[in-house]
Amino acid sequence: MDEIIEIDPIGMKKLDNGQHVHFHSRAYDLVNEYEPAKIGLPEPLKTEWKGNIDTEEDIGKEVVAETLTKTMNKKNEERDRILTYIFRLIRACVFSPEDAEEKAASELALVINSYGRVQRESFDRQSSHIDGLLVDLKKTENAAHVTTLRLTSALAKLEAANGECKKLYLQSVKNPHRSNLPTAAEVRPKTDAIYNRVVFMLKAAYVSGVASVDKAALKQLAEHLNSLVDRTDKAYHQSLAQKKSAADKKKKKPDTPPQPKEPKPKKPKEGDKPDIHLPEPEAPKKPEGSGEGKKPDTGSGGGGGAPGGGSSPEITLPEE
Questions:
Q1: Distance (Å, rounded) from C-alpha 142 to C-alpha 148?
Q2: Residue 271 region, left (φ>0) first, then alpha (ψ -120 to 50), else beta?
Q3: Record's Pfam families (predicted)?
Q4: What is the average pLDDT across 102-108?
Q5: Among the listed residues 227, 215, 183, 204, the one whose alpha carbon sits nearest the alpha carbon of residue 63
Q6: In 3D, which of 52, 4, 6, 3 has the Cα closest to residue 25?
Q7: Which of 162, 193, 234, 270 is the most exposed place for a label (fewest CB within 10 A)?
Q8: Is 187 helix (H, G, I), strand (E, B) or coil?
Q9: Contact partners, residue 118, CB within 8 Å, separation at least 6
Q10: SS3 helix, strand, coil % of the chain, rounded to 5?
Q11: How far does CA 121 lie from the centroid of its chain?
Q12: Are 34 and 217 in contact (CB under 8 A)?
């Protein structure tokens, strides 16, 4: 039985876009090291494969460009906020009751008036005009006024934000936006199909017996592709482990001393009476020496009556 070569499969669908294009790029580089005739691979198939890989790389750059645009917008909002603070403070201090602040603000207001519409300009023009504003405010005749209005820190932050905006703009120039690209979901299956075709043809060439085919080269290429598959699998699982670890750390709360648990009130069982004891009413106290069933003397004579004309209880003296 003729010897065959084995090229390990790899689950393409599990790879994210970056891992996917990286695998195909490295696989293409390995295949491209050999002459097509020696490995039984037609040149047009390689050309089509390379075209799909390039498209996937362009899609990846487009995603980076979109992320860069969001970053630029956020940084632009930051420098606009600082500019608004500087302009409003200067204009407000024109009415300051402090003479030094009123004078400083009046002088600086003349400087910023020519930059009043800078926040409405395009991204790159705004960067240039902010550079001019910073130069004007740092001039010798204005530096003391900046200090008086306590704007030194704000100017430093504006300069830093403007510098970052200029760097981001240069990056966007290097990564131009393309609207004619397909989606990764459309391209990836086509790239995978070409790779599967390449693997099939490499195996077929090994057992074909064609004189131009170099079996030693094919065997070596198969080993290299298997090594790439193994490395890609390991990198994928390592990426999963890192994501899981990051998610676990995010869920874990900082250590805090345990709080005492309050006892939960017991639920009364059905039929139980509430444990409530109402005070029993006290019996009215009887006057000392009064006999049961005896009526009080209702006579009107004598001064022994109770005050207010009320009757007094009957008193019996002992006999001699």
A1: 10
A2: left
A3: DUF6261
A4: 95
A5: 183
A6: 52
A7: 270
A8: helix
A9: 83, 126, 129, 130, 133
A10: 65, 0, 35
A11: 31
A12: yes
Segment 120-162, tens digit of pLDDT: 898 989 999 999 999 999 999 999 999 999 999 999 999 999 9
**Residue 228 CA: distances (Å) to CA of 27, 185, 236:** 7, 23, 12
pTM of the model: 0.54
- The enclosing H or E element of 222 equals helix 215-251
Give the residue from 20, 18, 65, 67 showing the smallest Cα distance to 179. Answer: 65
Give me the amino acid identity at 59: I
Torsion angle, alpha carbons of 190, 195, 200, 204, to 10: 120
Type of residue at 241:
A
How many CB atoms within 10 Å of residue 160? 13
| Nearest residue to 226 (alpha-carbon basis) of 63, 2, 30 | 30
Res 61: pLDDT: 82
**HEC states along 244-283?**
HHHHHHHHCCCCCCCCCCCCCCCCCCCCCCCCCCCCCCCC
E strand intervals along the chain:
none
Task: Tell me how far CA of residue 226 lies from CA of 23, 113, 317, in angstroms.
Answer: 12, 68, 129
For 211-234, how does the pLDDT look when each residue is reduced to its tens digit (9 = 90+)? 889 999 999 999 999 999 999 999
Q: List all residues 6 or more positions away from 167 whose beta carbon is below 8 Å from its beta carbon.
A: none
**Three-class SS state of 204:** helix
Rounded to an integer, what distance in angstroms lies between the CA atom of residue 121 and that of residue 317?
A: 120
- Whole-Å CA distances, 277 to 136, 266, 274, 280: 86, 19, 9, 9
Q: Are 198 and 49 in contact (CB under 8 A)?
A: yes
What is the token pair recorded at 141? 């005749």
Structure tokens of 210?
């064609």
